[in-house]
Design brief:
Blueprint: E1 2-6, H1 10-22, E2 26-30, H2 33-42, E3 47-50, H3 59-68, E4 75-79, H4 84-93, E5 97-100, H5 105-119, E6 126-129, E7 132-135, E8 140-143, E9 146-147, H6 152-163, H7 171-178, H8 189-201, E10 210-213, E11 217-220
Parallel strand pairs: 1-2, 1-3, 3-4, 4-5
Antiparallel strand pairs: 6-7, 7-8, 8-9, 10-11
Length: 226
């Protein structure tokens, strides 16, 4: 999942980037409101973390302009302002959650995971699709209750497909949401990840969890359990 961090404190921004990347997120960053507004308008993100006290353009205005442009990715406000009026203003501008500094990184990550799940229509971190289970909190995948060993990139690819289960996801969309902007889009790396996932999730070739939709992309086709 790709996250945009909008924070003018260089040290905090780097700390957040390091912490989130170590947990499997793809992270891009901005240090001012004008740049952040442009990035949110031009590039696809799964969620954004936005400070309110930004140079050039306040964080609340950045969020408001994103929403006016029909950008629907979840937004978490991260700020030192703890007054209820600031919280109300941020939420009414279109933010989805609010975290006051100082904070614990574990709480931030838990909130981000919850926002991603809700955006995809899931209430809990554990999602079951037939014999395949994805635990987004523990970043664990099981097949018939046995752990499946995945690389970080394999996990990211599978997580995105499962969070969009039943939808055909183009190679371009997968690349944009999982990798940095300088990722080699002409490489066959994505095809390699898909092939490995099929081998690991369907060793007997009976499930067919990931379908190739010719000319369009890939689709996770297992049905969710209630």
């Amino acid at each position: 999942m790709k996250v945009l961090i909008v924070e003018d404190d260089n040290d905090l921004r780097r700390q957040l980037k390091t912490a989130l990347e170590s947990r499997g997120y793809t992270v891009e960053e901005s240090a001012d409101g004008e740049d952040a507004e442009f990035m949110g308008q031009e590039y696809p993100y799964d969620l954004a973390i936005v400070d309110l006290g930004l140079p050039k353009l306040p964080g609340v205005e950045v969020i408001r302009r994103w929403r006016d442009a029909q950008k629907t990715f979840p937004v978490l406000i991260l700020t030192a302002r703890g007054d209820w009026q600031d919280k109300v203003e941020g939420l009414e501008a279109g933010a989805d959650d609010y975290l006051v500094k100082p904070f614990h990184i574990e709480e931030l990550v838990a909130r981000l995971n919850a926002l991603l799940r809700r955006a995809a229509g899931h209430a809990t971190p554990v999602m079951r699709y037939g014999p395949v289970t994805l635990d987004t909190a523990g970043r664990v995948v099981t097949l018939n209750d046995k752990p499946v060993k995945l690389t970080s990139y394999e996990y990211r690819t599978l997580e995105y497909l499962i969070l969009n289960a039943g939808k055909t996801i183009s190679k371009t969309e997968l690349t944009e949401h999982l990798y940095h902007q300088d990722f080699d889009r002409d490489s066959n790396v994505l095809e390699v990840f898909i092939r490995r996932l099929r081998q690991k999730l369907d060793p007997e070739q009976t499930l067919q969890p990931i379908t190739t939709v010719r000319g369009l992309g890939y689709r996770f086709d297992l049905s969710p359990e209630d």
